[in-house]
Design a protein that fits this description.
- By secondary structure, the protein is an alpha+beta fold.
- The protein has one domain: Trna Endonuclease, Chain: A, domain 1.
- 19% of the residues lie in helices and 45% in strands.
- It contains one helix and five strands.
- The protein has a five-stranded mixed β-sheet.
- It holds the Pfam family UPF0102.
- This is Protein containing Uncharacterized protein family UPF0102 domain protein.
- InterPro entries: Restrct_endonuc-II-like (IPR011335), tRNA_endonuc-like_dom_sf (IPR011856), UPF0102_YraN-like (IPR003509).
């Protein structure tokens, strides 16, 4: 998995698994936050991701299936970090 950036476009993580390109948005919140990390999966964020993904696909030449996922990270006061991978967090017709 890699972080990808080109000009104003950025994808937190791009990884291939089982022939599927996973574009992963990473969101971190402190434990006890009023909004969970997965609340970041908004329509506005999805539009920004699709613009960046379209640019990435043009540059990389990827022609296979694409899936948008969310990695929700919760930082606890004792230093622990809890991770949850939410697959297909942003529905698309890729």
């Amino acid at each position: 998995a890699v972080n990808w950036r080109s000009g104003r476009y950025e994808l937190d993580l791009v990884a291939e698994r089982d022939g599927i390109l996973h574009i992963v948005e990473v969101k971190t919140r402190r434990s006890g936050s009023l909004t969970p990390p997965e609340a970041a999966a908004t329509r506005r964020k999805f539009h920004a991701l699709t613009r960046a993904a379209t640019h990435y696909l043009g540059v990389s030449g990827w022609r296979g299936e694409v899936q948008f996922d969310l990695l929700a990270a919760e930082r606890h006061d004792d230093g622990r970090i809890t991770l949850e991978l939410i697959e297909n967090a942003f529905e698309s017709n890729w």
